[in-house]
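Dear support,

I submitted the protein below through the web form. The confirmation email said the job was done, but the results page showed an empty box. After a refresh the structure appeared. I'm attaching both so you can tell me whether what I see now is the final result or a partial one.
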Amino acid sequence: MTPSTSLRWASALRFRLILLLLFLALVTACNLRENTLLPPNLDPKEYITENTIKVYYDHLIKSANDDSYLYIPKESITEAGLWYGDRVTLTRVKALASRDSLALPVGSKAFTDSYRISVLRHGQEVIIDSLQAFATLYTDLKRDAELSSLRLVKSAWTLGAQAIEVYPYGKGRCWFDLDGSGEHALIDFKDSTELRLPATSKALQALMVTPDDYLRLWFPAGSLVSEVTVKLEDSLSPAEIATVQNLFPGFVLNTPIFSLEGNLGGTQVPIVYYRMPQPRTLQRQWTRLHRGAVHGWPQGTNTWLWREGELVSFLSGAGKFFLLTPLESQNSLDLPLDGSLSKLYLQDIWLDLRDLNLPSVNLRLDLQPDAQSLLTDYFHGSPFQLASERQIFGFSFTKGGTLLETLPADAWIEFGFRSELQNRNTAKLFRAFRSKDADKISFKTRADGYDATHYSSADGFIYSGVNSSGIYIFGRATEGGNRLRLPCLKPQLQLQTSRSYVSYNDPQPPCSSLELEYSASVEASHPWLSGSPYQLNSTQALLRISALNRGRSQAELPANLFISTACSKPLTGVVNIWPSTDRPQFYRYKPAESLQLNSFVQSGGRLQIYPTCAGYLLDGAQLNSSNGDKNLAIFNRMVFDDYDWEVWLNSGLDVVSGTVLKLSPKASLSDAYGVFANQYSLSPLAKVYSFQAMGDPDFYTKFQPLIRLRQSSRSQNLLFSVSNGDFYRIYAYEQSSEPDGWHFTLANGYASFYLLYDAEYAVVQDLAPHTETQATVTDSSRDLIASLYQAQATIPSQLLADLLPLGSHAELKLVSDPPVPNTLSAYSVLFRNPQQQLISTNFYTDPTATRWPYLYIPIPNYTPGQQIRLFFRDQEGNTSEFNRVQAFSEVPDFEYTLVGNCAVCFIDKPGLFYITGTSSRRGY
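What the results page shows now:
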């Protein structure tokens, strides 16, 4: 090879390499472009790019004239779908909305181009229709599309539209599923109810779809000789109603109004296809209203009919067309609410039923209901006095023959009626629902527009929404000044008056009527309002509630009584009091965002409350107390609930005049002996209170009040008491299902217990539960106390200096291993010097001991009368038994007595104290 030949060969090789690189770059660019036009989840290994169906495989078909794609899953290759040998093409075509053979609502906007999917089979085009997920179209999506408003418009055999899911991806791309071939586009109809059809010699299809309506129109060739406008309207004007009533005095609209404006030509009439359920009523008429003339056509093969869920009818020229059902003159009407009726017109009444779709639900409209008993019970002076000029209607909604108090699914109908009342603006529209168990009466007042609490009026008509069965009364009504009496005739009552709303739910109401007095004065002589514990500074009550039974007033109210009453005065507290000497009651309420126990809600100038007893509702600020202590006057039957604490007493014994229970709030439990500081780790869950009975030295032998303390937590807790009378005693109550002398209950946020003696009480959480404790001698001038919940060992101060010097300590421990069978409780008591050496004692024989140490030993699950035995075992193993006595003797060695659920004995030596017996369930 010559040098010149070698050079030419190298140049040709470089040229070929450059061409190859350019080709590879072009192929890569095309692949990259195609990848950006398809969603990333499409795997090229899962499909083939072929227009002709030859194999059972997914197919991807590119548009013949843009960058859209049609993806056909292999499942569409089926008897009802594609066949082998079919050729499928995708082509962008002229926009559906701009064709002179198609018409869409005014304001419609397309958000994709229009595409034709063609299927050729043996050289002939076939239409594939209603094959779910037949194919998926990937195409461009225009900006600002509201996806939820888009509808897939399809032109194949007919023009149609449906709501579908549209999935955006990439940059301005989307995909959506198709159910067949034909021409498709995504279009937003903007909920328009107007069509404008141009003059044309061609046949034309029109489509109108809203959330409530689906309308297709077919105009034959030659019928559109001029521009025509078709509108869907909700109702007729009053003048039009009057014109129709000349032919049909009472009628129900089954459809909206199809209004056609313009001139039609030709010999063939346009056809209407309107989706709706077939009405169950007979004698329907397809009606045309035009220039004061009304024409009706009964159903027939040559007039109109139903076919596959569609009304098929005609438009014979300009005018308003609708389907109606004539109504005969009668006092009651039965109407289905399944969506087959649109509006009902009687001479002076109309109902809008169009938005209802409640299968099996019916309405009976009664124009002359029997309301005599209702008027007698509630409208003859108490609580209402109804004027003689009134209008009364009855609405009864039923399903399967069962009366429905309220329509399901928040449904309602619009009701209008003509009223001849004078001064209609001051009238009320009452609704009264009565059943065997309930009376429910409410009313609406006039406003510019009707809503849940108002009606409106215009042109002599009253308009209101109705969603509940009942008797409706329109008229002027007065109420009884500052005093209202409400009859208690049924287990349930819900009643609205101008000032108050009252309801209760009680299977057997304890009273025959309730009375509300709005300008009542309180009698301030009751002890609870005259210093024991509060002083009343104003006698004006917010409200007086009387429960009357055979004319006599009583404290008991119907269960679940709720009152909402007008009150513009800001309240920081409310007191409900029954100030009698026979079972007086007092309940304090505090404001809250929602109604809870002992709370009220004040909002929108109204006070909402569940009163507990009859009597008075007072502003809490009307009650004064001189200091933190409360001297509560005691009655043998009483309830005093001051929100944070309550005192309940129910006894048949007489109370000594002047007896009071002194309650003193404290920051913490008294700890004169350092027990709480050194032997417990407690967290308070409620205020600490000291209780002291005064005025009767025998108070606790006759009465044991139930005390309830509000606590701030529902955590596992204990109730501690500290008494400092003849003996200093710390006692921890245990929680149980019922309160008694040594248990408390926890319910509704309150700790409840019986008060058996003067003491301090605190609800606490035990942060460090333990089974043993020790008390160290730090001050020989005070008794040494070791406390272990209900167990307690007390060492008199006289014994500390010599026998237990400073730094010594007493140990009290719960023994978990029973020393003998049938052991109920066992505690060890030991004494140690500062060097931790055991100290041996003989307190019984010590001549210097003027007081002996003593021990409280709790008996678990103790039942009064239960037989027990108490033993002591010293450190050498010697066992002695104690004798039970009612009271200790002069020399009480080896004697014990019972105090509550504890055995009490004196301590001689260190050792083990244990109780045996038969375990018993707790009772009281």
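Response: this is the final, complete result; the empty box was a page-load delay. Residues 1-7, 19-33 have pLDDT under 50 and may be disordered.
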